[in-house]
Structure formats: structure tokens, C-alpha cells
Amino acid sequence: MGANDSAYGLETYYNLSYTIVSLVFLSPFLGYTAAALLNERVHCTVGQRGVAFISSLCHLIAYILNCVHPPYPVLVVSFIFAGLGNGLADSAWNAWIGNLVNPNQLLGLLHGFYGVGAVISPLIASLLVADAGLPWYYFYYIMIGGAAIELVVCVACFWRSTGESFRLAKKQQPGGSSEKAGLWSVLSTMPSARITWTCAIFLLGYVGVEVALGGWVVTFMKEVRHAAPFSSSMTSTGFWLGITVGRVILGFITPLIGEKIAITSLPPNAKPWWKTTHLIHLNSLIASLILFSSTLGYDISLMNSLQSLPQWQTFMSYPEGIKLGFINALQNIASMLFLPVQAWSANRFGRKPTILAGYIFMILGVGLQSASQNPNTFIYSRVLVGIAGAWFQCAVVLVTEIAYPGHRSLVTAIYMCQYYAGSSLSAWISFAMRDVQSNWAWRVPVLMQIALPLLALPGTLRVPESPRWLISCGRVEEARGILVRFHAGGDEGSQLVGFEMEEISQGLALERKARREARWIDCVRTSGNRYRLFLSVSLGVFAQWNGGGVVSYYLTLILDTIGITSSTDQTLINGFLQLWNLVMSVVGACLVDRAGRRALFITSTVIMLISYIFITALSGSFVTTGTSAVGTAVIPFLFIYYAGYDIAFTPLLLAYPAEIWTTSLRAKGVAISMMSNYIALIFNQLINPIAFERISWKYYFVFLVVLLVVLVVVWKTYPETRGRSLEEIACIFDRKEVHVTYDAKMTTEERHTGKIEHREM
């Protein structure tokens, strides 16, 4: 539906003014009006299954008519069919989702994916029409495919939702058998009429402005600002991207502050965490630790950005092949080798001192790298930056162990999402320096590696040590004081703190009973730990060996072939892709506790597999035929592929291992996951160029097989951990070795909110 609400290339083809072409947008209004009048009768007659069939059929009719590029009056009629299909589907699916559990979040995602279609469609259309030079109606071939998928999927999902079942459900509602719940009743009966008319008037202005601006901004950029066609279309993509982000975020904010407050943006009566002093303090400190993920994203992405700068290429004597692969991989090799040392330090000296130790290596590494006078100094200073990155990885362990119980899953999932914030910053800083005619063009981006760690330093110095680590060292009262201050707001008698202390203490006591001191051999000593080890290693490998490192190999070639040759336009696409990654990874993080870890992993892998099949087929066809339209079609599937990757493998890469390992082995477990990730990444950096040189795009088939393996492994072996404390998660893996009992029982909701009702034991 989002992709439907635009029209491309009609002015030129039909030789009409923009005003006349804009009349085509009145056609969907007629379709929506008809849908409103027929909606109740259609539901009672054919049910939601019939709605799914009719709406999809209307879309197919409209898009098929558009593909034959009929006379303009016929085109106007075709959009009436599209509007009718949109109206029926819009009302049906909004109403259905509104009756589910957590409707605000789900409706936010529903309307967010409307925005996804609106974000991608200008990009596809501009590449087909503006750059590939194809007629405007070629875009609707893609829409036909989407409508066909809609027909199959929606009818299958609502196959049992017949008219009879809808009428029966309606009768079972209060007053359903006696009241006339038709359109006239909704528009005339108080108090529903007042709400209906108020929302209708608001939506009249909101949707009108939204759709008008989404199309008009392109014409404005071309005719008033005299921008290039492709750059003009990017403004529409950016416009819809902002709307998409707002819709998704609002879906998660609304249940926290209420619908009325969400609409007016005035939350005077709400008491969310940001109005709770001790949680504001705690989460602000955690936000400082999350910046270390952005640091990792900046450091790893920096080399990709530097390679686009001629000044850096000249300084480094144009490295290529195995030498370039070695330069890229050296930092990751250093991080991988020092992760075991970091894990030992975290258990021996504490989580916080381990993080702070990384600053020594970061300052030395960035100083040497930015002041390099020869290539060798630049190359080997990356070792120091890699070592610093290894020490900084302890931040996710500390975040996991100090987070408020109800926030732990979200903040640990958001941790890795900020990787893309750092990578975006790296790309845009390098882009801003591209015209500097000296070595400062690359020295400034290198020097800025220290910016994010320095920004995180004040919060890192004030963050408390892990209560779990303190209890493991016998510093029980110190740990209790931290929990009282940051989880209970100073309430010494807090039952939440009492429960946490009891749970942590008993879990650690059972660990000590099994072994006196955590060693690396303990990671394979028990069946539960071997299971954890398998999950940590496989997740680290899967996060790299899913085709993401090679899926965009031909992107630059494709853009060059279809006429997008300027570094500005190419960087613009890359910039939008980074923002897309950031948005979708945050969406995945917000769904961690709603959908669960397992569901996200499976959904992510399925999306990647399906999109990768299309990418492989289109890439092969492009290399064989050189047809620019085929190459262009790869780009939207890249966005879909990364959306699939981002919703699970970005937020859960560190969050999942951090929660499945016990306290004494948590630092080692996270280190193992990152080591496996670095090994897979180093493999990609060294082997992928050789493989592409030998077998070209056919290398994609390797990752199709890998994605199938990932799907099977995740389906068969990855357990769900949603709604459990860290100690309860241990019971999933150590059922025979661990049995934690509590003197005070708490429900999951009580533990997450910190509110405990009095109960007789």
C-alpha cells in the first residue's frame, strides 16, 4: 500500500501539467469512499478471507491496467480500483490488529511497513525511470508481483475467517445481535460519533499533507531547486523514511504514556522511567556504555570509508588484493587475540576497570595512526586500536548485569544497534572531508575514532560495578547498596532488591559448589555449558557468514552501469542504507521482549534467505546480460535483506550470549562469541576477494546453502529466553545441575516492574 501511493513519470509520458496529473490522486479517494460504504457488508458476506481476496484482486487489476499504459482517463479509473483495494485492506487489517494483544506496537509496525513501501518505491522508480531510462509503467511490473504475493499470503492467513465466522463473532459481542453497528451508527451515535469525526477531520489534513508532500517534494526539487532527477527522488525517500521511523517509535511510546497523551505530546500524568529519578540516572550511565558499540562500528567501518578517499590511497601507495585484505583484517585479528585476556581481566579485576584499560590502547593507537608518516606506522597502529576494541567489549557484560530487570533485554539489544550509529558517523565524516586537498582528508576521520570513547568516559567513570561480580567476590553489602540506589531509588526495604540479592547469591553459590574458580575448560565441562558454547560460536559465525559481506559486492558496478557514477550519489545511497540499518535494528531491539529471541532469529533468517535468492538470480542475470534494469532491481532487495539481518543478528549478537552464560563465565562466553565473529569476519576479508576473482557471482550460491543451514540450526537448537531473569535462564541449560529456589516468589511482571503485592507464603 505504501508503494502504491505514488505516481512516476506521468507528466512527461502523457504531456500533462502537474495539476492535471495530481487529479489521479483523487481516484483512490473514490475507492476509499466506496470501501467505507461496503466494508461492513463485505465482512458479513465473505469475511476477512473475502476481504483479502477482493483487495488483492483490486490491486492486481489496477497494476495490470497501468502496465499496458492506457489512455489517461483509463489510468484514472485504474487508481479507483487501487483505492478500493487499499480501503478494504486498510480498515480490515487495522481493525483486526487493534483487537490483538499489544495493539499499539503492532499497529506502529503495520503503519511503519506502509512507510517502508513508500521509502523503497521512490528509490526503485527513480532508478528505473530516471536513471535506467525505462518507461514509467515498468514500475508496475514490480507492483504486480507484490500484489500476487499479497493475494497468496493474505488469503492463506485468513482462510478460515469466513463470513459465517465473522457474523458469529459479531453476535457474541455485547449488544452485537441487537444493535445496528453499521456506518451510520458509528457516525451518528454518541460518544463514538464525536471520536470518529474528530479522527476523520485530523486524518483528512494529516494524510492529505503526507501524500501531497511525498509527491510534490520531487517536483519542487527538480523545477525550483534544479536538482538532478535521482537526487530529487532521494528527498522523497528521506521524507518517507522519517515518517516510517516516527510511526514505529510512536507505536512503542503510546502504550507507555497513553493514546491521548501520545497525540498531544503532553505527558503530565504519566510515570514512565524517564520520570523516575534513579532510573534516569541508571539509564544515562548505561547510555554511556552503549557508546562503546558505536565506537566498534566506527572503527570497523573506517577502512571502508578511507578507501574512497584518493588522499588516503596516495599515502598508502594504492593497496590492493591480499595487502588490502591484511590491512582491513589486522585490527580484527588483534581484537580476537586479546579477547581471552579481556575475559580474564573482567573476572579478576572487575568489569569497569577492564573497560577503562581500553582507553590506554585507544589513545596510543589513534595518536600513532593519525600522525602516521608512512604506511607501516598506519598499518601496525591498527593493532593498538584492535586491542582497545577487545577491552571495550566488556561494556555489554556490565550493561547486562546492572540494567533494571524490566529494561535488561531492551538495553542489551539496543547495544549492538548503535554499531550502525558509529558506522554512519564514520561514513559521513569521511564524505565531508572528501574535498580537502591534503592528508588531513583521512587524518581527521582517523582522529575522530577517539571522539566516541571520550564522550563515553564521564559516564563510564560514574557507572557502578556489576553487583553480580561484587557478590562473587564476597562484597555483598557493596552490591546491595548499588541495587538499592539504582533499582529501588534508595528504598532499603525494597522486596525487589531482596529478591535480586537472593537470586544472585543462590545462583553463585551453586556455581561455586560445582567449581571453585571459572576457567576456560569450564566452558565445555558440563552439557549445559557445551550447549551455551555451541550457541555462542554459531551465533558469532552466523552473524558474518550469511552473505552480508558479499551481497553488495556488485553495488558500485551496478550504480556505475546505470549512470549513477558520482561519489555524491553513491554515498547518498550508502548513507540511506546505514540509516535503514539503524532504524531496522532498533525495531528488532524493541521486539526482543514482544516477539521473543527465537521468533526474531527465525524470521530474520527466512527474510534473508528469500531476498538472497532474488539477489543471486538478479546479480547473475546482470553480470551475464549487462541489462541496467536487472541490476537496478538488486537494490531494493538489498534493503529487504538488511532489514531481515538487522531485526535479529544486530541486536542479539551480544545480548543473547550475555544472558545465557552464568555470572562467572559470562565474560568468557561473550568473548567466545566475539572471537568466533572476528574469525568469520577475518575469513570474509581474506577469502572473499579470492573467491570472487575465481567464481564471480556464483559465490552467492555458497551463502544460499549457509542460510539454509542457519535456518535449520536456529529452528532446532536456539531456545527462547524471553521473560526470564539471568538466573532463571540458567535453568534452561542446567536443569540437572542447577535448581534455584526462592524464599519469596515473584511473578515475571512483578520482577520487571519492581512492584510486589503482599502474599502469604
Report the count of strand segments: 0
Report the span from N to C terminus. Answer: 55 Å
Structural class call reads: mainly alpha
Domain tally: 4
Beta percentage is: under 5%
The biggest sheet, with number of strands, parallel, antiparallel or mixed sense and barrel status, is: none
Shape: globular
Q: How many separate helices? A: 35
Mean pLDDT: 76
Indicate the low-confidence ranges by residue numbers.
Answer: 256-270, 736-761
Percent helix:
over 70%
Radius of gyration: 28 Å
In short:
With 761 residues, this protein is an all-alpha fold.
Helices and strands in order, then pairings?
Blueprint: H1 10-14, H2 18-22, H3 26-67, H4 72-98, H5 103-131, H6 139-157, H7 163-172, H8 183-188, H9 192-223, H10 229-257, H11 259-264, H12 277-306, H13 310-315, H14 321-348, H15 351-370, H16 375-392, H17 395-402, H18 408-417, H19 419-432, H20 440-447, H21 451-462, H22 467-472, H23 476-487, H24 495-514, H25 527-542, H26 555-561, H27 567-590, H28 592-595, H29 597-625, H30 628-646, H31 652-660, H32 663-695, H33 700-717, H34 726-733, H35 748-753
Helix pairs in contact: 3-4, 3-6, 3-7, 5-10, 5-30, 9-10, 10-27, 12-17, 12-18, 12-19, 12-21, 14-15, 14-16, 14-32, 15-16, 15-20, 15-21, 17-18, 18-27, 18-31, 19-27, 23-24, 25-31, 25-32, 26-30, 27-30, 29-30, 29-33, 31-32
